[in-house]
Specification:
Elements lengths: L1 H24 L2 H29 L2
Helix pairs in contact: 1-2
Length: 58
């Protein structure tokens, strides 16, 4: 579970950086990267939820 949390933190940091570049400077490439990372975050969130539920049943 720690590995998933670390991956989520790294992905969110990349997302925040690129989203800010798009919002502040209108950088279209950064927007594309932010959208891609947001999909990765979604997958990691679902995986975290699954693992978390399994852990809570123990």
């Amino acid at each position: 579970m720690k590995e998933i949390i670390e991956k989520m933190a790294e992905a969110y940091a990349a997302f925040a950086k690129d989203a800010a570049l798009q919002a502040e400077n209108g950088n279209k490439a950064a927007g594309t990267r932010a959208r891609k990372v947001s999909l990765e975050i979604e997958k990691l969130t679902k995986e975290f939820r699954k693992v978390s539920l399994e852990e809570s049943k123990k």
